Amino acid sequence: MGEAKRIVIVGAGQAGATLVQRLRELGFGGQITLVGAEPYLPYQRPPLSKAYLLGDMDLDGLTLRPRDYYDAQGITLKLGNAVSAIDRDAKTVTVGQERLDYDHLVLATGGGATALPADAGGELEGIFPIRGIDDINRLEPQIVAGRKVLIVGGGYIGLEAAAVCNKRGLDVSLVVASERILRRVAAPVTSDYFRKLHQDHGVRIIEGAGSVKLVGDGRVRGAELGNGLSLEADFVICGIGLTPSIGLAELAGLEIDNGIWTDACCTTSDPCIWAAGDCASFPYEEGRIRLESVGNAIDQAKVVAENIVATLEGRDRKAYVAKPWFWSDQYDVKFQIAGLNKGYDTVIVRDSGTGAVSHWYYRGERLVAVDAMNDPRAYMVGKRLIEGGKTADPDLVADPATDLKILMKR
Ligand code: FAD
Questions:
Q1: How far is the CA of 119 from the centre of ligand 1 (A)?
Q2: How many whole angstroms separate alpha carbon 410 and alpha carbon 391?
Q3: Could you give the residue ranges of the DSSP H alpha helices within 223-263?
């Protein structure tokens, strides 16, 4: 099957690496070329703001598979090379001076850390994003005990970086323009939990700053906040979100909608071009969504591989059904999230009294998401219920005496 066919994947990250593996597992025997702008073998990003930044993991630990794997599978790697153009009529992509032919092309281009604008001091020296290995290589020399770091952004990456810098002995301040940390992704009760966790470790959390303007004399020296506060900083970590890498798709005239537009089966507006991972926007419930998580990158990439093979064999494509999950590590708290809390109206708190805490989100009577802090059982039960389209009686959930397993039998 597909012996003479050529598949080119743009982006050698989590989605790209999963896709090439799945293609071979499915018996695709044609040419596979994985093109990556970074000079590294495909690697996992989550440890960059956790174990890797802490110094508990080396480069080998980050790498998803050794080079031998790709050689053995007959997968051509072109690393340290960005695809600069797609010619959809000729079905070629340009990589440096080279042109690669494709029968099917997959865009798995991920995204870049959103930068602070110049009028917010974003062009000063001493501001560090966390997206890739090179970012950590640049950041690492800054992390010296006793120095003052200012973290801008109160999402997962900002909070994880705050925990690591705190553990490494820095004086940490974290500032968010909006009224609370984790505002985009979690209920106030989860924000409260993590604010207290960080404050208990001595991190200064400043919420409701209104605006954040970094100041300095060429190099950042601090920040002036919209609420009138001024902060000093030796350097800044910027964690204000991700901007999906859509430039290549846009240039090729593909449809864009908060990411590279795909239909339910992960096909872009060109039937020979597919998209997966952080860069892809796809139908979800009544609207569209773009997810930024390892789970999504893996599951979506697998569906793309299966659908390409199905197309080559003249079979129907299948729809990608997202089952969102996520995790974050901060200090000794393992934070696991199942489902998406979009549109929730009620949050039930379950506190075991022994450190395991979970927050259960409902939209009407429907359970839509669970935040579990050091509570793997709540996460596991919540995830199964949500994925099975089931709900859980809020009174039973709230009662710490309820054995959560019984919820699955109802
Ligand atoms: P990426 O892994 O970003 O890979 C895309 C690749 O495409 C990049 O290497 C890029 O250089 C390359 N590329 C882009 N354009 C081109 C081009 N024109 N030519 C060639 N190559 C190109 N998710 C979780 O679920 N849990 C976590 O705890 C978690 N923690 C995270 C911590 C950090 C610090 C970061 C940065 C992310 C974290 N994530 C986490 C998110 C997760 O890592 C991403 O969702 C996932 O990596 C997405 O995979 P991807 O393949 O879509 O994109």
A1: 28
A2: 9
A3: 247-251
* Tens digit of each residue's pLDDT (9 = 90 or more) over 152-184: 999 999 999 999 999 999 999 999 999 999 999
Ligand 1 touching residue 248 (CB < 6 A): yes
CA–CA separation, 234 and 302 (whole Å)? 44
Please tell me the distance from the alpha carbon of residue 295 to that of residue 404, in angstroms, as a whole number: 24
Query: Token match 């999963």: residue?
Result: 18
- Residue closest by Cα to atom 12 of ligand 1: 11
Question: Does ligand 1 lie within 6 Å of residue 328's CB atom?
Answer: yes
pTM above 0.90, yes or no: yes
Whether residue 146 contacts residue 280, with contact meaning beta carbons closer than 8 Å, is answered with no
326 within ligand 1 shell (Cβ under 6 A): yes
Q: What is the pLDDT of residues 322-342, one digit of tens each?
A: 999 999 999 999 999 999 999
Pairing of strands 75-79, 333-339: unpaired
Atom of ligand 1 nearest to the CA of 247: 18
The tokens for 373 are: 């802090």
Count of other CB atoms within 10 angstroms of residue 208: 13
Residue nearest atom 38 of ligand 1, based on CA coordinates: 46
Ligand 1 pocket, residue 37 CB under 6 Å: yes
Residue 50 to residue 142: CA distance in whole angstroms: 16
